[in-house]
Amino acid sequence: MSNFLITTTIFIVVAQCVRANDIEDKQLTFTVSHSFDSGTEIEYVTRGVLSVPLARPSESVFHQTPLSASDVAKLRRLSEQNDLYRVLVAHDQNDASLVVSSFAKACSLYESELTDHFRVTLDRSGTLLGVSDFISQQCTGVYIPDHKL
């Protein structure tokens, strides 16, 4: 009987360690896309890739693609029109159920020199639930040179 209890206890401890290691080793990758379009025909282009280690989400890394001259002009136009900047985050681009979006005033993003902070919300298993795009800059109408974007 005592061998059975010891074996069961060892199995439970090993199972918990394996589960903990799965979480420690698991890294999620999200594609972040954005749009400078307004109206009903919204087209998204890739902004970058967000990598999130589940065991240490504070060590997340965002690899961002620099804006093209065309994108800078589109962002400036959206800002001048007091329109919205849109963000789309996808865990797997082939699965529409794992896509979430957010938006912010384009002038805030423009005047912050493209400095924003994403908050990606996941459930305990790492399933994508939501995204928020925080921009601390207020819209004042200031001109930002292209090289700062």
Automatic annotation (TrEMBL):
Intracellular or extracellular location(s): Endoplasmic reticulum membrane
Signal sequence interval, chain numbering: 1-20
Keywords: Endoplasmic reticulum, Membrane, Signal, Transmembrane, Transmembrane helix
Predominant location: endoplasmic reticulum
Annotated membrane topology: Single-pass type I membrane protein
Entry similarity comment: Belongs to the EMC10 family.
Full protein name: ER membrane protein complex subunit 10
